[in-house]
Design goal:
nucleotide-binding; 9 strands; seven-stranded mixed β-sheet; Rossmann fold; binds adenosine-5'-triphosphate; binds pantothenoic acid
Length: about 325
């Protein structure tokens, strides 16, 4: 009840139909290439979801992007300086397995449709996790995804370089296959028009990090943020479903960190996945992720089968 009051005061709420109707007055036609890209992404993903939910979100983001550019021009004229535009950063937060990286990919396809922001890159904050070596040393192997498992200092360094217009900024690379940071491999972010940064920790503060001497928030660098929400019951189900998908594919490779999970009976694997959910990801959701939801510019709430039922936009 208290939460409901907070939402109605701070956010404008739309149900699925109301949100969809917002895009009726603005023409937006997907190209065949975009449809092919979206279809190839994920076989469970529905194009109806793109039309009803993600196209209106991208139209809104285009409005925010353009107004940001206009504001920068006016301010620079006032100050008598001229800086070239720096990447506009959109953050996507939410639980493990809620669909952050899928949403990021859809938005990348849609947002690159506009000439003013045709270059859109994605980065996951998984790449700022400490290496397993550091996590083992600090006794944090069962805290992956918790605030203390990230190299926040490196993440802030990265964001600060992006926002100062550095032409090429490097980020580490994380692999779910080896369950670790990949040695000597990097992703290069080349001054895109938009950077989509997705990760469960992007709306968190860094006050937990004893290695950072100043209180900075990654969200200080975000221009717009989206929190993807769902009930814990659904999230646990999606986590288990994905765990079983990985078990049948990635984990079955002998070099996979979790090869063991593909060797045991399915019922045992499900039991393990439930346990990981309860002790790590579900706990992290309640302690560290959900409390950041009310910091987002936009909150989208999913129901069964990842169908988005509600959208809330900060007033
Ligand atoms: N809109 C959608 N429709 C159907 N399935 C989806 C949708 N979004 C995500 N999924 C499925 O849900 C699972 C989790 O999605 P995804 O990997 O995008 O989540 P995530 O939030 O990025 O997870 P993590 O934090 O662990 O990286 C995947 O199996 C994905 O295929
Ligand atoms: C890397 C994260 C934290 C986020 O993507 C997550 O996928 C993870 O590995 N969590 C730790 C518990 C687990 O293995 O699911």
């Amino acid at each position: 009840m208290k939460q409901d009051k907070l939402f109605t005061e701070q956010y404008v709420q739309f149900n699925r139909q109301q949100w969809y109707e917002l895009s009726h007055s603005i023409p937006f036609t997907l190209t065949e290439e975009q449809i092919a890209n979206l279809k190839s992404m994920n076989k469970d993903f529905s194009l109806e979801e793109v039309a009803k939910i993600y196209i209106p979100i991208s139209l809104l983001l285009n409005i925010y992007f353009n107004s940001d550019v206009k504001r920068q021009v006016v301010v620079q004229n006032f100050l008598g300086i001229h800086n070239s535009h720096v990447p506009y950063i959109i953050g996507i937060a939410g639980s493990v397995a809620v669909g952050k990286s899928t949403a990021a990919q859809v938005l990348q396809v849609l947002l690159s449709h506009w000439t003013e922001h045709s270059k859109v890159q994605i980065l996951t904050t998984d790449c700022f996790l400490h290496t397993n070596k550091v996590l083992q040393h600090r006794g944090l192997m069962h805290k992956k995804g918790f605030p203390q498992s990230y190299d926040t200092h490196n993440m802030i360094r990265f964001l600060s370089e992006i926002k100062s217009g550095t032409p090429e900024v490097i980020a580490p690379l994380y692999s779910h296959f080896i369950y670790d940071i990949v040695p000597n491999s990097y992703k290069i972010i080349q001054k895109p028009d938009i950077l989509i940064l997705e990760g469960l920790n992007i709306l968190q503060s860094s006050i937990h990090d004893l290695h950072t001497s100043y209180p900075v928030f990654a969200s200080d660098f975000l221009d717009f943020s989206i929190y993807i929400d769902a009930s814990e019951e659904l999230l646990q189900g999606w986590y288990i479903k994905r765990f079983l998908k990985f078990r049948a594919r990635e984990f079955s490779h002998p070099n996979s960190y979790f090869n063991y999970y593909s060797q045991i009976p399915e019922a045992k694997a499900i039991e393990i996945a439930i346990n990981i959910w309860k002790k790590i990801n579900g706990l992290n959701l309640k302690q560290n992720i959900l409390p950041t939801r009310k910091r987002a510019s936009l909150i989208i709430t999913k129901g069964k089968n990842h169908v988005i039922e509600q959208v809330r936009l900060r007033r």
